[in-house]
């Protein structure tokens, strides 16, 4: 029942997200954008959002200027979303509701303290979702500035690396559960086993087979096998390991020791892997379109004029400053 109520709340908020309805100050609004009044709660939210930003310069005037721009952006995004006749699917509305509820449960008390209600919070998150819809309308297939799959594959190659690996730790466990390093003899045997599988993997592109053989021939330690796609920010692997794999040729295998493990790695040709491209296409589109999207939004915002109620803006500023 709670989930159903939350979804209805999102649906109702969608109806008024294009304007900034129900100000906590009655008919008074801190800002109007092209004649559209912006709810005081929205202004409060954006004041808090830009408070510590570099652009705000740590000053009252800087924060008010940046929060004003965020309000202009809010109106511009919602208006453009409507002008393009876009909509969120039922599944997207449910996802939006669920994510907003999780975040509100974590931070709701704080936002209420600075005068932002859950309804306003969801309106802002809804506008954020509109931005992603505009991204698709501009840059996805059939968009006004469509980005080709060829360019997206280039982004995939530049930002991601795909590989399969078998990994064996250089330590084993004694009967008492204590970790002990492999002996020189065991180490030499392990390295020889990895090297013997290297040609097999390079020829057959099968890491799973190598994993099975190594596990059978070297049961002293627990092997691990995984098929992964990572970028340079992945925290599971060090930058040095990532660079080592990046430097490998596509469809090649390499055995090497790194840290406390011995690896057998097979690097996949990520650009020509249709499944990987399909899974990461949206992420690649987001990467390559982020700068032009923000440029488009800035151009949109330049067409909007804002008028501030100086007294009310300062009042809101002082209240946020006192309660944040």
Number of domains: 2
Strand percent estimate: 5-15%
**Major sheet, described briefly?**
4 strands, antiparallel
Count of alpha/pi helices: 11
Note the run of SSEs as H and E: HEEHHHHHEEEHHEHEEHEH
Overall pLDDT score: 90
Polypeptide structure, described:
This protein is α+β, with helices and mostly antiparallel strands and 324 residues long. It has 2 domains: 2-147 and 285-323, no CATH class; 154-272. Helices cover 59% and strands 14% of the residues. The radius of gyration is 27 Å and the shape is elongated.
Question: Would you kindly provide a brief summary of this structure?
Answer:
The protein is an alpha+beta fold.
Quick tags:
324 residues; alpha+beta; 4-stranded antiparallel beta sheet; 3-stranded antiparallel beta sheet; 11 helices; disordered N terminus
Please give the structural blueprint.
Layout: H1 2-16, E1 31-33, E2 36-38, H2 40-50, H3 60-83, H4 90-113, H5 118-139, H6 149-159, E3 161-169, E4 171-173, E5 179-181, H7 184-204, H8 207-217, E6 224-230, H9 239-246, E7 252-258, E8 261-267, H10 274-302, E9 306-308, H11 310-323
Antiparallel strand pairs: 1-2, 1-9, 3-6, 3-8, 4-5, 7-8
């Amino acid at each position: 029942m709670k989930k159903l109520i939350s979804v209805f709340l999102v649906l109702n908020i969608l109806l008024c997200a294009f304007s900034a309805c129900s100000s906590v100050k009655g008919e008074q609004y801190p800002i109007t954008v092209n004649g559209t009044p912006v709810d005081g709660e929205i202004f409060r939210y954006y004041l808090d959002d830009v408070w510590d930003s570099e652009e705000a310069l740590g000053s009252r005037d800087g924060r008010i200027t940046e929060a004003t721009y965020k309000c202009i952006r809010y109106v511009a995004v919602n208006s453009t979303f409507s002008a393009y006749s876009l909509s969120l699917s039922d599944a997207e509305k449910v996802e939006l509701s669920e994510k907003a509820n999780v975040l509100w449960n974590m931070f709701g008390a704080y936002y209420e303290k600075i005068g932002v209600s859950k309804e306003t919070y969801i309106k802002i998150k809804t506008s954020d979702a509109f931005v992603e819809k505009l991204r698709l309308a501009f840059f996805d297939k059939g968009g006004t500035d469509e980005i080709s799959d060829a360019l997206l594959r280039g982004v995939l190659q530049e930002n991601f690396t795909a590989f399969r690996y078998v990994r064996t730790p250089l330590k084993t466990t004694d009967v008492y559960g204590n970790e002990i390093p492999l002996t020189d003899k065991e180490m030499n045997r392990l390295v020889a086993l990895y090297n013997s599988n290297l040609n097999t993997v390079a020829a057959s592109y099968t890491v799973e087979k190598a994993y099975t053989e190594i596990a059978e021939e070297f049961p002293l330690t627990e092997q691990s096998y995984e098929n992964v796609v990572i970028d340079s920010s992945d925290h599971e692997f060090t930058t040095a390991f990532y660079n080592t794999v990046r430097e490998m040729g596509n469809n090649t295998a390499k055995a090497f020791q790194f840290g406390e493990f011995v690896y057998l790695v097979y690097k996949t040709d990520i650009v020509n892997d249709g499944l990987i491209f399909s899974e990461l296409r949206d992420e690649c589109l987001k990467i390559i379109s982020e700068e032009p999207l923000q440029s488009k939004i800035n151009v949109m915002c330049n067409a909007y004029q804002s008028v501030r109620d100086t007294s009310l803006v300062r009042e809101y500023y002082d209240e946020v400053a006192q309660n944040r």
